[in-house]
Design goal:
mainly alpha, 3-stranded parallel β-sheet, 47% helix
């Protein structure tokens, strides 16, 4: 048997963190078992489904690298198949037409809630006996078994048993002829030969209903794994106010997909005390039975730590492709400066996100006309004229424009003028970067190139001279 999993989001919103984790777990299990992974768009909610949401889901999956073997399938393109099977259930007496009005059902619900009962359909139309015009509006309800129990062994939660008397006859086709979610899911999983369903714990109540439909259709029942919810930093259910609007927001905020995947896999799954996993390690080690029952808490600081780890340890050329997006997003022309791989090597140690790295390295690609006020006031004073002038002379003479050689020049200037390194290095830093903080100044100067460095020192000397007059 080929293991086959699926990710089946509803396109009523963006791909969020919880959905991405479900997709990852489904994808990893399929890859671990040398199986197949299916992407299905469950767009039966015609009023709320949008093309924008579909595009966002596909973009998020592609950015994360969660490639699919089949799909994307769309439920709205399969209505003929669903209706064919609904008609079959009607003929077999496993489903029936329900003519109850919306008003009657709402009244029934209010009565049951007032009596402290669980709201459910009372089966009025189940046994027929009512005369209605052939074209009278009706829904189709599934005739749920009234005796016995539904039992399934969940990979995360163990044995789950629900008695059939807790389940009512759910609607499988609306009055407008559209089949409903719970029925479509069953038919899709059957037709697509899904063997394992990984989804959120909010679907547990749907599972016994769906198992009864599988059995009524004579379809094999897949195995289930219902994963727990993700909580925010504050312990509340993860929501938009925690910043988890969309997976693509994490890209926009400067995270690498490798970091987000590594973070998500640990939100509910573990392998000993290991924190950092390559994708190959995730695939080889992943198991549905190792998923925790407990809710997981989102920790932004840990995600930032992981992101910096990947910025520093992934091949710089791989990170450069992601950094280029941020450069363009911030309007920085990468063609006017050093190779991005060299920038990453120098700056990743001091930045947690690519967005931050792009902003901090802007001066490598763009000239500036003003120095940061606080840094200039502190370090570009008249006393800085002599070390800046001597450094400019020595740097202009330097043939080997490499960090080590530049570092020697700065040391030599400090020794010659009998100054501490800070008295030379800090004025130089502000002169060539325009700001008071940067990576090692010799490395920055090497990336900038000699001509830019000398021109910026000249600009700083002009400011120092102006202040000396004033």
């Amino acid at each position: 048997m080929t293991v086959k999993t699926r990710f089946a989001p509803s396109p009523t919103g963006f791909l969020h963190v919880g959905g991405a984790r479900t997709a990852l777990y489904s994808w990893l299990y399929a890859r671990h078992q040398q199986g197949e992974f299916v992407l299905r768009i469950e767009d039966t909610d015609l009023e709320r489904s949008t093309q924008e949401a579909i595009d966002a889901i596909l973009e998020g999956m592609n950015w994360l690298g969660l490639t699919w073997d089949e799909g994307p399938y769309y439920q709205t393109k399969r209505f003929d198949r669903y209706n064919q099977l609904i008609d079959q259930l009607l003929e077999e007496g496993k489903a029936y037409k329900c003519y109850c009005s919306k008003e009657r059902l709402e009244g029934l619900r209010e009565q049951q809630m007032a009596a402290g009962e669980k709201p459910r359909y009372d089966g009025t139309c189940r046994h027929g006996g009512h005369e209605h015009a052939a074209d009278a509006p009706c829904v189709i309800r599934f005739k749920n078994p009234t005796e016995g129990s539904v039992v399934f062994d969940d990979h995360v939660r163990g044995r789950i048993e629900i008695t059939n008397d807790q389940l009512d006859d759910l609607i499988i086709r609306r009055t407008d002829g559209a089949p409903t979610y719970n029925f479509c899911v069953v038919v899709d999983d059957w037709d697509m030969e899904i063997t394992h369903v990984v989804r959120g714990e909010d679907h547990i109540n749907n599972t016994p209903r769906q198992i009864n439909i599988y059995q009524a259709l004579g379809a094999p029942v897949p195995e289930f794994a219902h994963v727990s919810m993700i909580l925010g930093d504050d312990g509340a259910k993860l929501s938009k106010r925690h910043g988890a609007v969309s997976v693509m927001q994490y890209r926009d905020d400067g995270y690498l997909p490798q970091a987000l995947l590594n973070y998500l896999v640990r939100l509910g799954w573990s392998h000993g005390d290991q924190e950092i996993f390559t994708l190959d390690e995730m695939i080889s080690l992943f198991s549905l039975n190792a998923i925790s029952k407990s809710a997981s808490a989102f920790n932004t600081d840990k995600l930032l730590w992981l992101n910096q780890h990947y910025m520093k340890t992934l091949p710089a050329g791989e990170v450069a492709g992601h950094l280029e997006w941020h450069m363009q997003d911030q309007g920085i022309d990468c063609s006017q400066g050093p190779a991005l791989s060299e920038v990453i090597a120098l700056y990743a140690e001091r930045c947690h996100t690519l967005k931050e790295l792009a902003a901090q390295s802007r001066y490598l690609f763009e000239d500036f006309s003003e120095f940061e006020a606080g840094a200039a006031k502190k370090h570009l004073r008249p006393v800085a004229a002599e070390p800046l002038e001597l450094a400019r002379v020595r740097l202009a003479e330097l043939a080997d424009w490499q960090p080590a050689a530049i570092h020697e020049v700065i040391n030599a200037v400090a020794a010659e003028l009998e100054l501490g390194m800070g008295k030379v290095g800090m004025p130089l830093r502000v002169a060539v970067t325009g700001v008071g903080q940067s990576p090692a100044i010799d490395g920055v100067m090497a990336l900038l190139g000699k001509d830019k460095v000398l021109a910026r020192i000249d600009m700083a000397l002009a400011l120092v001279a102006e202040r000396a007059k004033g």
